[in-house]
Design brief:
Blueprint (H helix, E strand, L loop, with lengths): L8 E2 L2 E2 L5 H10 L8 E2 L16 E2 L2 H6 L1 H14 L5 H11 L14 H7 L22 H29 L3 H7 L8 H12 L21 H19 L14 H28 L5 H5 L3 H33 L2 H4 L3 H16 L5 H6 L1 H27 L7 H24 L5 E4 L5 E4 L8 E5 L10 E5 L24 E7 L3 H10 L4 E2 L1 E5 L2 H11 L9 E6 L5 H8 L5 E7 L2 H16 L3 E6 L5
Parallel strand pairs: 1-2, 9-10, 9-11, 9-13, 11-12, 13-14
Antiparallel strand pairs: 3-4, 5-6, 7-8
Length: 608
């Protein structure tokens, strides 16, 4: 039966058992058989699992009208809730004494009237083996057991809401750290720090070049973020459990702990969902706040997905064990909430192996389709798991609402951009066997753009990123936040590009008005060089800024960097090209930074 709809989270707008003493009085006395109780089928009210007496069921109408029950509960409340305002007790009495359903009957008389009818005070405790046929005292042992169950369960759930909020807002600290880039530290100090702790790969010399073609080795800065996220989740998963006996919900502390761990895993998995969706979005507002690359956020998205999946599996596995031991599995496994939960957990699990790097590289469209289907199924499965279990009573679905709101915002912004640009006819020119040129009239863009080709495939939703070389007929330089703003403040900019990586450094070439710019570009085919010159013209590829254009052979990166990065100068190195080239530049720049050169690395990744 559905309870009152809650808004917020448990402990933050939603209360489970308030006042706890009143709930404990009700639950302790509801174990008695009343004169209006009816025979049950074995699932009725038994005192603490006692099956020595016949089963019975007490319906809401019975609780609302039985004089002995009303008077016994009112007297128990008056003696166990001395510090609770009468107005709060009356509210509890009217809304929750009979049950938690909004359409349930209200007690036939108010709390204060029932308490008057309990005079003279009772002096005997009724037996659970007999009918409650008079006003009776509550069994204090039973009351304590129920009180402990309610109080500490709500306390634990409130703590889990708090930990969920901490988990969801854990990104605040890294964001604050990213703002340190505005602090005017000596640039030689920043260069040395980045060369030791931020830019190098965590292990070895490979970052963009996949390890065993399976995974990207994070930089040390990215690894610190990943370790921070993992640590927060591990600590929040393990801390803050208080186990108390006697407890009406659990016969042993082990049972208590298992349920608490299962619930904690579920809440933390839910709390990870908003960040999981946000970090994968193309309209992530944190991109501009932190100045982190999109590839960094996608990497964090993958690790959050791993944490979210592990926590969902813990939640599912723990409850599977609990239900098997209790003997409830055969019944509960057929319930909609259980089926939806298993669907959600399996969808999360399927997301991980279908998102590995080889699949993304070789079957990108299949990856996107599977990713969307499994992700949507997981989110809907979680929502209906919560709905069928609790309706909207405890606010767990709030995390799903936030995740869907972020997803909807991202999709809405995509649609707005599509609507603004409209449907265009593109002219395709083959440059060489590896590159094509796409000219789209009437569109201004920068950096990279996602293009849809609805006339080439029935899968009209598919889109792919294209590097933007330039905008013809533009009267002003292209504006970009990366990499040009990332190199602001350095006296010299050295763009190192390979192949079509030239597109990423065009903003540097166009907008650099102070200092020195030296371009080093390696290309496999002269056709690509001619095509780029045709688009950019001599004003951008001025002989004064072209350090070297190499066609058909590799640039000697170490020789160039050691020659161009002078002692005492402030140099920004912008690299965009093949993964081997990018990793080599990264390694050399870090070596120079450790030697005291003032150098800043900006890596414009081809892929993520």
């Amino acid at each position: 039966m559905a309870g009152y709809q809650g808004y917020g989270l448990i402990g933050y707008g939603i209360s489970m058992y308030n006042p706890t003493c009143a709930y404990a009085c009700h639950d302790a006395l509801s174990e008695y058989q009343l004169s209006c109780s009816v025979p049950g089928d074995g699932d009725g009210h038994h005192h603490m699992g006692d099956t020595s007496r016949p089963a019975f069921v007490t319906l809401p109408d019975c609780y609302a009208t039985d004089d002995n029950f009303l008077r016994s509960v009112s007297y128990c409340i008056s003696t166990h809730c001395p510090d609770v305002p009468t107005s709060d007790l009356e509210r509890y009495w009217d809304k929750f004494l009979v049950g938690r359903s909004p359409d349930q009957p209200v007690p036939k008389e108010p709390y204060t009237i029932a308490l008057l009818h309990a005079d003279p005070p009772p002096n005997t405790t009724a037996s659970y083996t007999t009918l409650l046929n008079s006003t009776a005292l509550v069994n204090e042992q039973t009351y304590l057991s129920v009180y402990n169950a309610h109080f500490y369960f709500e306390q634990t759930e409130t703590r889990q809401s708090t930990y969920g909020l901490v988990d969801a807002f854990r990104t605040v600290i890294p964001i604050a750290c990213s703002l340190l880039r505005f602090v005017p530290f000596p640039k030689v100090v920043s260069s040395w720090f980045n060369a030791h702790f931020i830019d190098p790969p965590l292990f070895g010399r490979r970052h963009r070049n996949p390890v065993l073609n399976l995974a990207i080795m994070p930089t040390r800065g990215q690894a610190m973020l990943i370790a921070y996220f993992i640590t927060i989740n591990v600590v929040l998963s393990c801390a803050g459990y208080k186990l108390v006996l006697p407890n009406a919900f659990y016969g042993a502390k082990r049972d208590q702990l298992m349920v608490y761990i299962a619930n904690r895993g579920g809440v933390l998995s839910l709390a990870n969902l908003p960040l999981l969706v946000l970090y994968a979005g193309r309209n992530n507002f944190l991109l501009s706040i932190t100045d982190w690359s999109y590839s960094t956020f996608v990497l964090l998205h993958r690790w959050i997905a791993i944490l979210c999946t592990i926590e969902a599996c813990i939640h599912s596995a723990m409850y599977l064990h609990i239900y098997l031991v209790a003997g409830f599995y055969s019944i509960l496994s057929k319930e909609p909430f259980w089926i939806c939960g298993i669907v959600a957990t399996l969808s999360f699990c399927l997301l991980l192996p279908t998102s590995v790097l080889p699949i993304r590289q070789k079957m990108y469209n299949l990856f996107l389709s599977c990713h969307f289907i499994f992700a949507f199924t997981a989110l809907m499965g979680v929502y209906f798991h919560i709905f069928h279990r609790f309706k909207h009573e405890w606010g767990y679905e709030t995390w799903i609402y936030i995740a869907f709101a972020i997803w909807a915002f991202d999709r809405t912004m995509r649609f707005i951009r599509l609507a603004r640009n409209g449907l265009k006819t593109a002219e395709i020119t083959i440059i060489d066997e590896n590159n094509i040129r796409v000219d789209i009239p009437g569109v201004t863009a920068q950096g990279h753009a996602f293009l849809y080709f609805p006339t080439l495939s029935w899968r009209v939703w598919e889109n792919h990123p294209f590097s933007v070389m330039g905008t013809l007929m533009a009267q002003e330089p292209l504006k970009t936040s990366s990499p040009s703003t990332s190199t602001t403040g350095e006296n010299t900019s050295l763009p190192y590009t390979g192949g079509v990586g030239i597109t990423a450094v065009v903003p540097v070439l166009r907008t650099r008005s102070n200092g020195c710019v030296r371009l080093f570009w390696g290309a496999r085919s002269p056709q690509l060089v001619d095509a780029v010159k045709d688009v950019l013209g001599s004003s951008v590829l001025d002989p004064g800024i072209v350090g070297e254009i190499s066609v058909g052979r590799r640039l000697n990166l170490r020789e160039i960097l050691e020659r161009e990065v002078l002692e005492g100068s402030e140099t920004a190195i912008v690299v965009c090209g093949p993964v081997e080239m990018a990793d080599e530049v990264r390694a050399i720049v870090c070596e120079l930074g450790r030697k005291g050169r003032t150098v800043k690395l900006v890596d414009e990744a081809f892929s993520w």
